[in-house]
Design a protein that fits this description.
- The complex is a heterodimer of chains A (215) and B (185).
- Chain A is of the alpha+beta class and 215 residues long.
- Chain A has a single domain, classed as Jelly Rolls.
- Helices cover 33% and strands 22% of the residues of chain A.
- In chain A, the strands form three sheets. Chain A has a six-stranded antiparallel sheet, covered by helices on one side. A three-stranded antiparallel sheet of chain A has the order 7-6-9, with no helix packed on it. Chain A has a two-stranded antiparallel ribbon with strand order 4-11.
- The radius of gyration of chain A is 20 Å and the shape is elongated.
- Chain A starts with 9 loop residues before the first helix and ends with a helix.
- Chain B is mostly helical.
- Chain B folds into two domains: 96 residues, Orthogonal Bundle (Rna Polymerase Sigma Factor, Chain: A), CATH 1.10.1740; 55 residues, Winged helix-like DNA-binding domain superfamily/Winged helix DNA-binding domain (Arc Repressor Mutant, subunit A), CATH 1.10.10.
- Chain B is built from seven helices and no strands.
- The longest helix of chain B is centred in the N-terminal third of the chain and has 21 residues.
- At the A-B interface, helix 1, helix 2, helix 3, helix 4 and helix 5 of A face helix 2, helix 3, helix 4, helix 5 and helix 6 of B.
């Protein structure tokens, strides 16, 4: 387990537990929890709160015969659910491998300039999630946010004005924050980044390029 | 609002009922869990915005899943209502997104899954305290929590400060995880 310094917020963990986050955020949360026992334990406590709510939200009458229908459904056997392939932890924890279709070597990178590459992962809803590959010492273009951006480090490390983020660390940035992450010298920095609104670049050129980058 | 707090003996009975389903496909035990939980799952789903038909279909799936996955219930990590909540939540997401929710990597809890009665008792007690605390929360605070779980708030609107004794459950799970990591190295 990596030494993790930057964790998910309680609001995100509660949203994950409630099942109300966009899929892109769910993926970042599940990937972080895979390597972070602190947040895993906190997730369990928010699940327990969901359990307490279900006990106390009241009741709605169930149709006559629903119990029999349920027994019949059980007797028919399992609904076909495709089993998830068993994933061995590589650079990517299992939930991320499910979206990539494999580990780091299976990613189809696309160059976005300045030596930086990305790969969008398919999710439903408004929020988007992508992998980012930043060569050591290189900066991601200066950008602010209209919404929330989650950035989880999978390999290497980056720094921005606030702190250093290493493997397993997640940065939660809100719309007030304009930041300029720079990959630490050395190995490439690979991150999983989710946004619930398009990024807003500060410089003129990147803003023009933005529609083409689809970020 | 229906504020009937379950007592601890009831919680332990639910655990025993899941074990009866797991060990000997006990239909009677299942029927009792169904009668208690199905109307609650349905109410929960409807408060989360489901139509009555969708909620009932989903509830039936949830209860069938409880039967099929009874072997996966771990009474040292969760109460029965917590487990049912997670099944219902996942089922709802599946039906809405047509895709499964990304889940954290499974932990192999190892030989200690031969769970001790004391550990089961501890987490059921924590759950009991939590439910009691929830039932005595001022209305305004409780509404905020409900709105978060019923999907009426976005993550940036959620106030996760609940004033509830969530810390005890977190510490207990955290300790179990530490023990597990220790055993693995």
């Amino acid at each position: 387990m990596p030494q993790i310094k930057h964790h998910l917020t309680d609001a995100l963990l509660m949203g994950y537990s409630a099942g109300t986050l966009p899929e892109a955020f769910d993926l970042v949360v599940a990937t972080h929890i895979s390597v972070c026992d602190e947040c895993r334990a906190q997730m369990h406590s928010f699940d327990a709160l969901g359990g307490a709510l279900i006990e106390e939200t009241g009741t709605m009458a169930i149709a006559e015969g629903c119990l029999e229908a349920t027994f019949a459904q059980i007797a028919r056997g399992d609904k076909k659910t495709e089993a998830r392939p068993i994933r061995k932890r590589g650079t990517f924890p299992a939930p991320l491998q499910d979206y990539v279709g494999g580990d780091l070597d299976a990613v189809k990178w696309r160059r976005v300039g300045g030596g930086v590459s990305d790969a969008l992962l398919k999710t439903s809803g408004q929020a988007a999630v992508r992998l980012l590959r930043i060569p050591g010492g290189v900066a991601v273009p200066d950008h602010g946010h209209r919404g929330t951006e989650l950035t989880l480090v999978l390999q290497g490390a980056f720094r921005d004005a606030s702190d250093r983020f290493g493997v397993g660390d997640v940065e939660v940035a809100d719309d007030a924050m304009v930041h300029k992450p720079v990959a630490e010298a050395g190995a490439e920095c690979i991150c999983l980044a989710a946004t619930d609104a398009p990024l807003r670049f500060s410089g003129l050129i990147p803003r023009i390029a933005q529609p083409f980058l689809r970020i | 609002m229906n504020v009937t707090v379950t007592d601890l003996s009831k919680r332990l009975e639910w655990v025993a009922q899941i074990e009866a389903i797991r060990d000997r496909q006990d239909k009677q035990a299942f029927a009792e869990l169904f009668r208690h939980f199905a109307p609650r799952v349905k109410a929960f789903l409807m408060k989360s915005g489901s139509t009555a038909d969708f909620a009932e279909e989903c509830t039936q799936d949830v209860m069938a899943t409880l039967w099929r996955k009874a072997h996966m219930f771990d009474g040292t990590k969760a109460s029965v209502s917590t487990w049912i909540f997670t099944i219902a939540r996942n089922r709802k997401i599946d039906m809405i997104r047509k895709d499964r929710r990304p889940e954290p990597e499974d932990l192999n809890w190892g030989p200690e899954t031969e769970s001790s009665a004391a550990e089961i008792m501890a987490i059921q007690q924590d759950s009991d305290e939590l439910a009691r605390a929830l039932s005595t929360l001022p209305d305004k605070q409780r509404k905020l929590i409900e709105r978060a779980y019923f999907g009426e708030l976005s993550h940036s609107e959620i106030a996760a400060e609940t004033g509830l004794p969530l810390g005890t459950i977190k510490s207990r799970i955290r300790l179990a995880l530490d023990r597990l990591r220790h055993a693995m190295t």
